[in-house]
Amino acid sequence: MADPSSYRPRPGDIPDTPGVYRFRDEHRRVIYVGKAKSLRQRLANYFQDLANLHPRTRTMVTTAASVEWTVVSTEVEALQLEYSWIKEFDPRFNVKYRDDKSYPYLAVTMNEEFPRVQVMRGHKKKGVRYFGPYGHAWAIRDTVDLLLRVFPVRTCSAGVFKNAARTGRPCLLGYIGKCSAPCVGRISPEDHWDLADEFCDFMAGRTGTYLRRLEKQMMEAAEEMEYERAARLRDDIGALKKAMEKSAVVLADATDADLIAVAEDELEAAVQIFHVRGGRVRGQRGWVTDKVEEITTGALVEHALQQLYGEETGDAVPKEVLVPALPEPVEPVQEWLTGRRGSHVSLRIPQRGDKKALMETVQRNAQQALALHKTKRASDLTTRSRALEEIADALDLDSAPLRIECYDISHLQGDDVVASMVVFEDGLQRKSEYRRFQIKGFAGQDDVRSMHEVITRRFKRYLAEKERTGEWADGEDTDGATAPAGTTTAPVGMASADSLAPTSTAVSPLTGTGAATEADARPEAGAVTGTGPAPAAATPAAPEPGATPAAPEPGAAPTAPEPGVGPVDGALKDEDGRPRKFAYPPQLVVVDGGQPQVAAAQRALDELGIDDIAVCGLAKRLEEVWLPGEDDPVVLPRTSEGLYLLQRVRDEAHRFAITYQRTKRAKRFRAGPLDDVPGLGETRKQALIKHFGSVKRLRSATIEQIQEVPGIGRKTAETIAAALAQAAPAAPAVNTATGEIMEDEEPETTAGSSGAPVTTGPPDERRGQET
Hints:
By secondary structure, the chain is of the alpha+beta class.
């Protein structure tokens, strides 16, 4: 636990201007981000007597090891930079709203030639119009089913659409009048786009004009004695009104507003939002957060506004936002919202009338959401705490294992041998810390040797991170002992933290001298950055060969991972306080297996000189817990919460490993001779197969014939011909009804049960033949 006075900057060094500040811990992770109208006054509040601080603020400043700041021109810029850094660094002590679900939206893909109506979740895409969010996906489907009678817009997937266009027959919705069937040319692209635009107008709340137009057309049809057409229009009007009834009328017709309510206690806060468009409640959502700092209702509202509108622009930001308390000061927040929308946004507290009554309804929803969350979490926290305590008692640990890592090996008869590492913190999954490995030290099936390799590689990286961050200096620990055997030494040119310290400081116009500078702090353009005392950062360690980042779990944002090994969020690299790979040790290592696997894991730790991490194994057959050097296992009661947690950790590691192994195996099976051609992408592969009809015909083609395919030059054609010449030819196709071997000039096809030809060659030869 750090003493805040050890890293407190001198008051004269802190500028008395707007800016954003960051607290970092001893590992250089950003643990808190805040903004201030006056950095000097705000930071002074953190360095007062600890007894006067809020308990959570006290925990934060004693966890931190340094503080730094960035000066900006205005409070609006400070708000924008604070939001960017919170999204980038994910600080543990900042308010983070946990969306209680991934809300579904009704989406219309106006960026396509034939717009499609569908249910969408997750990140919003450019060119797609969204309506909602809705509480349930079935509510969207019910609404769409009613509206398709009047607006027969396409709802099918791209595969169904292309298949219908190929066969010339529409799907069922096209036959029953709930799709205008653009796939078969019943409507032009322009008319279908206009139809989708009318659908969007109706969903946006512009319903009155459209209903009046339909009623007028119905009356005209009745006067002209076109009773069937009038009846259809009558039914259309009924369907539209029924769809409108699903959204309660709460405010005047032209009202577009979001209402935000907050229910809170000393520890947590729940936020509920009602989205009102065209006077009707079009969507509802909610979040829950831990109050990890002393924070007012107005500050909670400000964080909710950042969460809600930080990625939105245009009409997604409403004209009016009604809140229970205003942020302090309110002007920068209102100016920021106005900038996001592109026109004036009113941020205020409702005082009377329908809006105040609706705000009371939203407030009741927030209170109920908080009560429900506390009931669930109380049970969950109690169970997890008991499970960790039982594990600590059973394994004779000094304290509860707050971070548990579990390893499993997966292969298929010795092929595609891989390993997984999953992480549980406080008894909960930490998917951003998951890792997966390819076993490259040897070939064949040997789970014990594989486990030794994986544990060695993982903790070599941990020791390398310790050395890189200066916890060891020049390969020695603080007692003067040499670094344990097996650690990765600093490469040539990498200095110790002590030797780097003088060269990583610079004279700052704000702080005088001795302020550590960082080139990668990424401040806003023109911002001036200053810091308090902080440990210097060294050159990152080289990535571990063979270990790969975990594939993003559902809901996770896709990013480009760093080569070698990395977290799920590959944009989070080693510097600037982002989570580093393998930098944080577990209190307990669990291996999937019995005594041999446990012994291998312990041997790997011993070879690296690590003696402060406990190891155990969970054997599947009898669910026995094995400890290193013990001849008899520890048997936990079947009703033990500790055993249940260990089973969950082991099963998650097994799932993650076998998923990766199956992915590698499937990729290997799908590989074809064209995959080995350097520089040949998927588009040109498809063009080759489409032109020649099969790999077999492509193999027999000349270089000049291959050059006839668009995008294929002579050099590429020669490479393709050489690669196909080296690949083994396919076995002949056989007619399953007659046993007749098909002629060589016949195209390779797949078989059906009716006696059609079947290709008997390997899977790589059948690649490209599938339709």
